[in-house]
Design brief:
The complex is a heterodimer.
Chain A: E1 5-7, E2 10-13, E3 19-24, E4 31-38, E5 42-50, E6 53-57, E7 64-68, E8 74-78, E9 87-94, E10 104-105, E11 109-113
Parallel strand pairs in A: 2-11
Antiparallel strand pairs in A: 1-3, 3-8, 4-5, 4-9, 5-6, 7-8, 9-10, 9-11
Chain B: E1 9-13, E2 18-23, E3 32-38, E4 45-50, E5 55-56, E6 61-64, E7 70-75, E8 84-91, E9 105-110
Parallel strand pairs in B: 1-9
Antiparallel strand pairs in B: 2-7, 3-4, 3-8, 5-6, 6-7, 8-9
Classes of the chains: A mainly beta, B mainly beta.
Chain lengths: ~110, ~110
Protein backbone atom coordinates (compact mmCIF):
# COMPACT_ATOMS: atom_id res chain seq x y z
CA UNK A 1 0.00 0.00 0.00
CA UNK A 2 1.17 3.52 -0.70
CA UNK A 3 1.86 5.57 2.39
CA UNK A 4 0.45 8.93 3.34
CA UNK A 5 1.28 11.53 0.73
CA UNK A 6 1.38 15.26 1.20
CA UNK A 7 1.59 17.94 -1.42
CA UNK A 8 3.38 20.13 -1.94
CA UNK A 9 6.50 19.09 -0.04
CA UNK A 10 7.90 22.60 0.10
CA UNK A 11 6.19 25.95 -0.13
CA UNK A 12 7.32 29.55 0.16
CA UNK A 13 4.74 32.26 0.75
CA UNK A 14 4.74 35.86 1.90
CA UNK A 15 2.92 37.39 4.83
CA UNK A 16 -0.75 37.99 4.21
CA UNK A 17 -1.12 35.30 1.59
CA UNK A 18 -3.11 32.13 2.07
CA UNK A 19 -2.07 28.55 1.49
CA UNK A 20 -3.77 25.18 0.99
CA UNK A 21 -2.01 21.94 1.87
CA UNK A 22 -3.20 18.55 0.74
CA UNK A 23 -3.04 15.12 2.34
CA UNK A 24 -3.92 11.77 0.80
CA UNK A 25 -4.30 9.07 3.46
CA UNK A 26 -3.47 5.41 3.10
CA UNK A 27 -6.15 3.66 1.07
CA UNK A 28 -8.99 2.55 3.33
CA UNK A 29 -8.09 4.89 6.18
CA UNK A 30 -10.97 7.07 7.29
CA UNK A 31 -9.26 9.36 9.76
CA UNK A 32 -6.87 12.20 9.06
CA UNK A 33 -5.14 14.37 11.63
CA UNK A 34 -2.99 17.44 11.08
CA UNK A 35 -0.06 18.64 13.18
CA UNK A 36 2.22 21.65 13.13
CA UNK A 37 5.86 21.12 14.06
CA UNK A 38 8.23 23.98 14.90
CA UNK A 39 11.59 23.97 16.68
CA UNK A 40 10.22 26.05 19.53
CA UNK A 41 6.79 24.48 20.06
CA UNK A 42 7.36 20.90 19.00
CA UNK A 43 4.50 18.85 17.55
CA UNK A 44 1.15 20.53 18.06
CA UNK A 45 -2.23 19.09 17.17
CA UNK A 46 -4.31 21.07 14.67
CA UNK A 47 -7.37 19.04 13.66
CA UNK A 48 -8.76 15.55 13.43
CA UNK A 49 -11.26 14.40 10.81
CA UNK A 50 -13.17 11.15 10.63
CA UNK A 51 -15.58 10.38 7.82
CA UNK A 52 -15.69 14.03 6.71
CA UNK A 53 -16.48 15.33 10.21
CA UNK A 54 -14.12 17.37 12.31
CA UNK A 55 -13.96 15.55 15.63
CA UNK A 56 -11.30 17.54 17.42
CA UNK A 57 -9.56 20.87 17.01
CA UNK A 58 -6.40 22.13 18.64
CA UNK A 59 -5.73 25.56 20.07
CA UNK A 60 -5.05 27.44 16.87
CA UNK A 61 -6.63 30.66 15.59
CA UNK A 62 -9.50 30.64 13.12
CA UNK A 63 -7.05 31.36 10.30
CA UNK A 64 -6.36 27.65 10.34
CA UNK A 65 -9.11 25.55 8.82
CA UNK A 66 -9.49 22.18 7.23
CA UNK A 67 -11.83 19.75 5.63
CA UNK A 68 -12.07 16.13 4.61
CA UNK A 69 -13.61 14.85 1.42
CA UNK A 70 -15.70 11.75 0.83
CA UNK A 71 -12.62 9.87 -0.42
CA UNK A 72 -10.90 10.69 2.92
CA UNK A 73 -8.44 13.08 1.33
CA UNK A 74 -7.98 16.17 3.42
CA UNK A 75 -6.92 19.75 2.95
CA UNK A 76 -5.91 22.39 5.42
CA UNK A 77 -5.94 26.09 4.73
CA UNK A 78 -4.11 28.90 6.44
CA UNK A 79 -5.27 32.40 5.62
CA UNK A 80 -3.50 35.70 6.22
CA UNK A 81 -0.15 34.02 6.75
CA UNK A 82 2.15 35.25 9.51
CA UNK A 83 5.88 34.71 9.91
CA UNK A 84 5.17 32.43 12.85
CA UNK A 85 3.26 30.04 10.61
CA UNK A 86 6.54 28.84 9.15
CA UNK A 87 6.65 25.20 10.12
CA UNK A 88 6.52 21.59 9.04
CA UNK A 89 2.88 20.56 8.63
CA UNK A 90 2.33 16.86 9.13
CA UNK A 91 -0.66 14.80 8.21
CA UNK A 92 -1.40 11.41 9.73
CA UNK A 93 -4.01 8.83 8.79
CA UNK A 94 -5.45 5.94 10.67
CA UNK A 95 -7.87 3.16 9.82
CA UNK A 96 -10.31 4.12 12.54
CA UNK A 97 -10.23 6.59 15.34
CA UNK A 98 -6.67 7.84 15.94
CA UNK A 99 -7.22 7.66 19.65
CA UNK A 100 -6.79 3.91 19.60
CA UNK A 101 -5.56 3.12 16.10
CA UNK A 102 -2.03 3.57 14.90
CA UNK A 103 -1.38 6.82 13.07
CA UNK A 104 0.73 6.77 9.94
CA UNK A 105 2.45 10.06 9.20
CA UNK A 106 3.30 11.60 5.89
CA UNK A 107 6.63 13.29 5.15
CA UNK A 108 5.15 16.73 5.78
CA UNK A 109 4.92 20.02 3.93
CA UNK A 110 7.61 22.54 4.82
CA UNK A 111 6.02 25.99 4.74
CA UNK A 112 8.22 29.07 4.83
CA UNK A 113 6.57 32.46 5.26
CA UNK A 114 8.69 35.46 4.26
CA UNK B 1 -5.65 16.63 28.42
CA UNK B 2 -3.41 14.16 30.17
CA UNK B 3 0.26 15.05 29.81
CA UNK B 4 3.41 12.99 29.59
CA UNK B 5 6.89 13.77 30.90
CA UNK B 6 10.03 12.42 29.28
CA UNK B 7 13.73 13.16 29.73
CA UNK B 8 15.02 15.58 27.12
CA UNK B 9 17.85 13.34 25.99
CA UNK B 10 19.46 9.97 26.50
CA UNK B 11 22.56 8.26 25.19
CA UNK B 12 23.21 4.63 24.46
CA UNK B 13 25.97 2.51 23.02
CA UNK B 14 25.32 0.51 19.91
CA UNK B 15 24.01 -3.02 20.48
CA UNK B 16 23.14 -2.28 24.12
CA UNK B 17 19.57 -2.17 25.48
CA UNK B 18 17.90 1.21 25.93
CA UNK B 19 15.14 1.99 28.40
CA UNK B 20 13.22 5.17 27.62
CA UNK B 21 10.96 6.28 30.48
CA UNK B 22 7.70 8.18 30.34
CA UNK B 23 5.65 9.52 33.25
CA UNK B 24 1.92 10.00 32.85
CA UNK B 25 0.61 10.41 36.36
CA UNK B 26 -2.75 11.87 35.23
CA UNK B 27 -3.57 9.01 32.87
CA UNK B 28 -7.21 7.99 32.80
CA UNK B 29 -8.62 4.51 32.56
CA UNK B 30 -9.44 4.88 28.87
CA UNK B 31 -6.09 6.31 27.77
CA UNK B 32 -3.87 4.24 25.52
CA UNK B 33 -0.11 4.72 25.71
CA UNK B 34 1.43 5.20 22.28
CA UNK B 35 5.09 5.56 21.36
CA UNK B 36 6.23 7.16 18.14
CA UNK B 37 9.67 8.10 16.96
CA UNK B 38 10.85 10.68 14.49
CA UNK B 39 14.02 10.22 12.53
CA UNK B 40 15.73 13.32 11.12
CA UNK B 41 13.85 14.88 8.21
CA UNK B 42 10.97 12.40 8.44
CA UNK B 43 7.48 12.32 9.86
CA UNK B 44 6.93 10.38 13.10
CA UNK B 45 6.54 6.63 12.81
CA UNK B 46 4.64 4.28 15.06
CA UNK B 47 6.68 2.15 17.44
CA UNK B 48 4.30 0.45 19.85
CA UNK B 49 1.22 1.00 21.99
CA UNK B 50 -0.54 -0.57 24.94
CA UNK B 51 -3.33 -0.16 27.46
CA UNK B 52 -2.56 -2.15 30.58
CA UNK B 53 -0.39 -5.14 29.77
CA UNK B 54 3.19 -5.20 28.59
CA UNK B 55 3.51 -5.42 24.82
CA UNK B 56 6.16 -6.73 22.46
CA UNK B 57 6.63 -6.28 18.73
CA UNK B 58 9.48 -6.59 16.28
CA UNK B 59 10.69 -3.06 17.02
CA UNK B 60 10.48 -2.80 20.78
CA UNK B 61 8.83 -3.74 24.05
CA UNK B 62 6.56 -1.60 26.18
CA UNK B 63 6.54 -2.10 29.92
CA UNK B 64 3.58 -0.47 31.68
CA UNK B 65 3.62 0.10 35.43
CA UNK B 66 0.91 -1.62 37.43
CA UNK B 67 -0.69 1.72 38.35
CA UNK B 68 -0.24 2.87 34.72
CA UNK B 69 1.31 6.14 35.84
CA UNK B 70 4.51 5.40 33.97
CA UNK B 71 5.79 3.28 31.13
CA UNK B 72 9.11 2.34 29.59
CA UNK B 73 9.97 1.76 25.96
CA UNK B 74 12.66 -0.88 25.64
CA UNK B 75 14.87 -1.18 22.59
CA UNK B 76 16.61 -4.50 23.10
CA UNK B 77 19.69 -3.78 20.98
CA UNK B 78 20.14 -0.20 19.89
CA UNK B 79 21.47 0.45 16.43
CA UNK B 80 22.65 3.69 14.86
CA UNK B 81 19.35 3.77 12.94
CA UNK B 82 17.48 4.02 16.24
CA UNK B 83 18.83 7.53 16.82
CA UNK B 84 15.68 9.63 16.82
CA UNK B 85 13.29 11.66 18.94
CA UNK B 86 10.96 9.32 20.83
CA UNK B 87 7.51 10.55 21.79
CA UNK B 88 5.26 9.03 24.41
CA UNK B 89 1.63 10.15 24.03
CA UNK B 90 -1.72 9.32 25.56
CA UNK B 91 -4.79 8.83 23.41
CA UNK B 92 -8.40 7.91 24.07
CA UNK B 93 -11.55 7.41 22.05
CA UNK B 94 -13.61 10.29 23.37
CA UNK B 95 -14.29 13.46 21.42
CA UNK B 96 -12.37 15.45 23.98
CA UNK B 97 -9.24 13.43 23.48
CA UNK B 98 -6.39 14.98 21.53
CA UNK B 99 -2.97 13.58 20.83
CA UNK B 100 -0.60 15.78 22.78
CA UNK B 101 3.01 15.27 21.79
CA UNK B 102 5.49 16.60 24.32
CA UNK B 103 9.09 17.42 23.52
CA UNK B 104 10.05 13.78 23.43
CA UNK B 105 13.40 12.21 24.22
CA UNK B 106 16.28 12.63 21.81
CA UNK B 107 18.14 9.33 21.73
CA UNK B 108 21.77 9.38 20.66
CA UNK B 109 23.37 6.05 19.82
CA UNK B 110 27.14 5.90 19.96
CA UNK B 111 29.06 3.39 17.87
Amino acid sequence: KAGVTQTPRYLIKTRGQQVTLSCSPISGHRSVSWYQQTPGQGLQFLFEYFSETQRNKGNFPGRFSGRQFSNSRSEMNVSTLELGDSALYLCASSLGLPRTDTQYFGPGTRLTVL
Amino acid sequence: DAKTTQPNSMESNEEEPVHLPCNHSTISGTDYIHWYRQLPSQGPEYVIHGLTSNVNNRMASLAIAEDRKSSTLILHRATLRDAAVYYCILTNNTNAGKSTFGDGTTLTVKP
